[in-house]
Amino acid sequence: MADLWLQFILTIDATFRVATPLILCAMAGIFSERSGIIDISLEGKMLMAAFTAATIAALTSSPLLALGAAVLVSVVFSLIHGFACITHKGNQVVSGLAINILASGLTVTLGIAIFSQGGQTPYLSGDQRFSSFDLPFAEAARSVPILGTIYAELISGHNILVWVALVSVALTGVVVMRTRFGLRLRAVGEKPEAVDTAGISVTILRYQAVVIAGVLCGIAGAYLSIAHGAGFVREMTAGKGYIALAAMIFGNWRPLQALYACLMFGFLDALAARLQGVDLPYLGQISTDLILALPYVLTVVFLAGFIGKATPPAAIGTPYVKER
Amino acid sequence: MTVSSSHKAKGGDDLPLAISLSGVSKTFGAVRANDDISLTVQSGCIHGIVGENGAGKSTLVSILYGFYQADQGEIAVDGKPVHIRSTYDAIAVGIGMVHQHFMLVPPFSVLENIILGHEIKAGARNLKEAKAQARDELIALSETYGLTVDLDARVEDLSVGLQQRVEILKALYRGARILILDEPTGVLTPQETVQLIEVLKSHRDQGVTVLLITHKLREIMAITDHVSVMRGGKMVDHLATATTSPEELAQLMVGRKVLVNANYHDATPAGVQMQVSDLTLTGASGMPLLRGISFDLKAGEILGVAGVSGNGQSELLEVLSGITAPTQGQVTIGSTVISPEAGLSPRDIKALGVAHVPEDRHAMGMVLPFTAAESAALGYEDQPALGTSMWFRPAAIEDHCASLMRDYDIRPGNPKLKSNLFSGGNQQKLVLAREMSAAPRILLVGQPTRGVDIGAIEFIHQQLIDMRDQGCAILLISVELDEILSLSDRVMVMNAGQSMGIVNKADANAQSIGLMMAGVQ
Asked: Own/partner pairs for A108-116, CB < 8 Å, 24+ apart?
């Protein structure tokens, strides 16, 4: 029984680790999409950031510098997206796809050029990365049943960036729902004309939104390669940007609900990893592929309107053009 | 913020002009939207600007509100020269605008909509405090101007009339002393229009200057002190309202004599062509859209359907033309019965001799990037004259279009021109020509003159009456009450998906129909 409890706690623990990039990207998506800009380039920005972080960490051995560089590169890609979609009123999905394709090719090409390791970056040692840290008394608490294991295994021992992700949810909630900037952000995603006629620049607001999205994607990418992982591997984001997008939709473009969706998707991921090759009573071995497919299936079911209703910002995907 | 301070403070009879424009010009590509416009608007007056669609009224007020910048010319507000480079600048000099299409965020509350862009005034430290502060100010403001509205209601739950009120309140909250209203009554019931007129008069009495853009001459006559007429991008005349007449204004707008009212004469209706009984339609969310509509449509009559936009008229048209199947009830055309069990496609219904001029010509009436000839063949491309089941005959289609263009005076008369290069009036004439030339027994017409200039309106109205005289049964759906009253032999009024009753020509007037439109039996 105690063993099963520990297994459960460890799965939940893994859930947070797996969900961290999803959470950061989902918050990025909320900022961008609430302003009316579809952002399927979460994936590409995160990939570029992961590569940049690993590269800078390998070259300078400074995780902080690596994080800064990752954020910078991600923001640059956000600005490219903004330049195409906001300034030039291009198709937001096409621009996003282009960024994803660009990131996919560019990371491998640059990786081979710099490190000649087939697109990977060198293995990063502990001090080149963001490490996990234990909270006080974690060891002592381990022996206390239930609460002790929760504290030692679940709450303590996380990477600093996991906490950053959780804080980002609270911040997103406050900024979007409670501040003047948030009011304008939501307005520009619903009815940009109303913002424009109020004397506020739609262009500047939307650029601000995509830059914030870039910062968050940058942190997510850095987490993948220099916190959760120990180096960059080609295509290491593996569709997490799209899952984050699905989680954001599942959360109805709201921070807290999106967090829940990310945790659910993260849990399914962690569960699939834990059940790999395990014989379950009555069920035998279940295919982990099925579990991994669940987030996508659930998203489709949600979008089809079987569970609740998704109401995207009204002006999403449409460039703002003053009518002539 | 005291709304009327600046000109009151100066006092005396010689108030500075609220607005003075001189030599304002604006060109879009090859189009001279505004050509050397001069205009003076006196403080504390209601000043009207009339003109046909495309006369340049909207461009002019967009320049005033900072949406566009003039290529040339000077603008002075309250006697001081100003450079309005953005909406922000316009608001700063005290200009507020109520747009034809409201600039409100539907899921936001009234309060949030009003403070958007001017959220935090001096003294508030955060959004919450700012909202509380704004609330007090707005309550005072709405009492001063008689603009009561629930500040916590979501805008999307409000009626159009109330939304307009929110727009006016928003402009005043931002410190407007000059209020521009662009076609404000297009979406209102006659009673709401009367209320709006009262509100605007009270604004004038409080010292607010009102600039009213409209094509409805009746409103100009009822409310304005001065009126300026625009035609083809130029200012053609400035008049004191008391010394002019609707006929004179119409003539100035069009540049020639026009009939303000259609050439109506009594109809001689014959047998019933279409029988509608207990027609009901329920929307996807379970919302009733049509509730038990019944009427007969006779050959040789025009049955007008009046109502404020969005009360089921569009749905009625969709069901009758076969786009949507009814949930309950039936439509009988000749010996054919259309019911939920036996639905017919639009093509089947067309084969019964029913033609349909859709409400929205851009969405349903034509394909804008197609040539005029192709648009004129849509829905009839399988007629033997125009093509076979597999091939269409471009030459025949162009000839067909050219003959329609001659008969219906569509300009420019070039079938190879893309549909979107025609003016709204000519596009509408093209759609009408296509449907009328099929010689239908029943003609369903939705908003035949929406966005169409006066000259074309006169022509379209005449065509409808001629069709009626030839024995066609016409169902006319329009949100323009004047149009319904001047053309219809009988008027059905719709409210909330229900028929409020059918009134004969003799008993139909704006007052009685207006009450029915508002849901009063």
From this structure: A108/A234, A110/A51, A110/A55, A111/A51, A111/A55, A111/A232, A111/A234, A114/A55, A115/A55, A115/A58
* CB-count burial class (<10 Å; 0-12, 13-18, 19+) for B110: buried
pTM: 0.79
Specify the higher pLDDT residue, A309 or A66. Answer: A66
Start-end of CATH 3.40.50.300 domains in chain B: 5-254, 269-353+441-521
As a three-state string, the secondary structure of B306-355 is ECCCCCCHHHHHHHHCCCCCCCEEEEEECCEEECCCCCCCHHHHHHCCEE
Task: List C-alpha distances in Å: B303 to B278, B490, B503.
Answer: 17, 5, 10
pLDDT tens sequence across A206-239: 999 999 999 999 999 999 999 999 999 999 998 9
- Alpha-carbon distance of A212 to A255, in angstroms, equals 14
Residue holding tokens 């009753």?
B501
Residues B249, B241 contacting (CB under 8 angstroms) = no
Most B-contacting residue of A197, A203, A252 (CB-CB within 10 A), to test interface:
A197
Strand ranges inside chain A, DSSP E: 132-133, 158-159
Distance of alpha carbon B342 from alpha carbon B332, whole angstroms: 11
Q: Which of B260, B330, B258 is nearest to B293 (CA)?
A: B330
CA atoms of A85 and A107, how far apart (whole Å): 23
**Per-residue pLDDT reduced to its tens digit, A75-129:** 999 999 999 999 999 999 999 999 999 999 999 999 999 999 988 999 999 889 9
The CATH architecture of the domain made up of B5-254 is 3-Layer(aba) Sandwich (3.40)
Q: For residue B281, which amino acid is it? A: L
Q: Where are the domains of chain A?
A: 21-239
Q: How far is A221 from chain B (nearest CA, A)?
A: 33
- For chain B, the residue count is 521
For B338, the token pair is 């259309």
SS3 B32: strand
Q: Count residue pairs from A and B with Cβ separation < 8 A.
A: 67
Q: How far apart are CA B316 and CA B494, in angstroms?
A: 10
Distance (Å) from the alpha carbon of A244 to chain B's nearest alpha carbon: 25
Residue A319: HSE in the Cβ half-sphere, 13 Å Cα cutoff? 15
Sort strands B31-41 and B19-28 into parallel, antiparallel or unpaired.
antiparallel
- Residue A193 three-state SS: helix
- Residues in chain A, how many? 324
d(CA A260, CA A250): 9
Residue B272 exposed, middle or buried by CB count within 10 Å (0-12, 13-18, 19+): middle
Token pair 């999205």 is found at A213
CA distance B421 to B423: 7
What is the spatial distance between Cα B452 and Cα B423, in angstroms, rounded to a whole number?
A: 8
Q: Which residue of A has its CA nearest to B104?
A: A194
Buried b (16+ CB within 10 A) or exposed e, B34-66: bbebebebbbbbbbbbbbbbbbbbbbbbbbbbb
From residue A244, give the alpha-carbon distance in Å to each of A27, A231, A263.
Answer: 9, 22, 10
Tokens coding A292: 């991994």
A194 at the B interface (CB within 8 A)? yes
State whether residue B105 sits within 8 Å of chain A by CB: yes
Longest dimension (CA), chain A: 72
DSSP state of A129: S
Confidence label for B9 from pLDDT (cuts 50, 70 and 90) = very low
Residue A115 CB partners (closer than 8 Å, separation 6+): A55, A58, A121, A122
Nearest to B67 among A187, A194, A322 (CB): A322
Written as one letter, the residue type at A99 is I
Specify the CATH number of the domain B269-353+441-521.
Answer: 3.40.50.300
